[in-house]
Amino acid sequence: MMTIIMFMLSETVLKYKKYIISFLLAGYVFTGHGIAHTMANIKHHAISNSPIPPTTLHDGGDLSSTATSSDDENKIIAIINGQLLTQRDIANREKLFELTAGIHLSPEVMQHMRPQLIKQMITERLHIQEMLRRSVNISPEQIAKAISGIEKQNNMPEHALRDKLAEDGVSLTTLIDQIRLQIGWGKVVQQELGTQSRITAKEVEQREKALKQEVGQPEYLINEIFVPVENARHPEQELQFTETIIQQLRNGAAFPIVAAQFSQSQSALQGGALGWVQEDNLDPEVVAIARKMPIGAISNPIKVAGGYIIAMLSGRRTIGNEMGTLMKIRQVFLPFSSKLNPQQPTPQQVATLNQTTKYKSTLHSCQQMEDANKKAGNIRPSDPGELQLERLNPEMANILKDLQPGQISKPLVSLDGISLLMVCSKERKNLSDISASEIANQLLNQRVEQASQQLDRDLHRQAIIEYHTPVQNNDSDKKQTKQHSSPSKGNNS
Question: In this predicted structure, what is the pLDDT of residue 57?
């Protein structure tokens, strides 16, 4: 299977909150560029300053735009308050999921996933309509900034994202619409919360006191995917969808991107990541499973109020007692011009090794490491961010554990180049300590989740949705009109 590289972009939509969308693309090594070509690319796809661009209206527009088309890709799947959802929309989303998950899904698996995917895209149409009603405008500059964030964080070359999508037959509009929707829905929730988006010092203080009383209790590092059940008396379809997703995750699909595309919880904006959470902030059914799960495991479907949860446990610790080593490092990567044959290195590869030997004696600071990496083309980022030694793979941990700040590693040779690492700082600390800002974020997460769920229920309750393709497994009619409703999920933030 091709290498999977995670893309993450962020947009601040609440005073204390960053929403993060995760995207994964397969089989690429990237080098970075700026915002200019992204802006040109977006304008090339006819994105205007209106909240919903013409391309989006084409894919899910009004009746007059596509209802008379005989083209199969314009086949109407559903009409949501007069707005179309077409076969083209569904096909693009399926292709995007395959591409970003980095796995191939059989037609049978896609068939199992499609009804739930249709439901999710109906919810997204309702979100877009609410953005329009509230005049929430996501400009081309914001979209460009978001895509540029993906490029810069992952050292992508010019046009790589667009070209990769095109190569796999995915409309760029599909990705742009998801970015617009994620940012815009965050702004809608911000409007809904109003002054409640402010977490007071008193609320933080009360939570700090409560946490002190929980010292010695377990807490869990959990990612979740929440699949809501529309009809509690007939959850078969949602259960089948949940089981299909679990199978794909266990086959290698990346949890963050699956969560970002399919989870109906606000945590989807962080790739399903809840962070470290205490038992009283989880559904009891999830707690019962988390207590027994091995680290790294993916749960079976967990039935909770309002739907099913898929949980992935990344860590377990005792509140008030988890010592760890935090490090900041810098990397210099010198690329080979061709793949290395250890038995017959090329002159360029020999020269590269000689250069790293020289660097070992001339680089003495992290700033010098950054400068050297920039000179080498910034093929890989010099700063990978803060690392916890105990969470690194054993090979990397062994390299870094004995290095002192300012000390450089031996050359690390791979088939495509040579790396040098330098430790900039190393600190031993209690990792269970939580700052006031982290507490504020936790409290705000809960508030955002509750507001989003309530608004979601209201939109579904008020919507007029006409299905042209059956969604429920036991549906036999080719055309149905219904008031769409959605149950609530328990507080999992």
Answer: 37
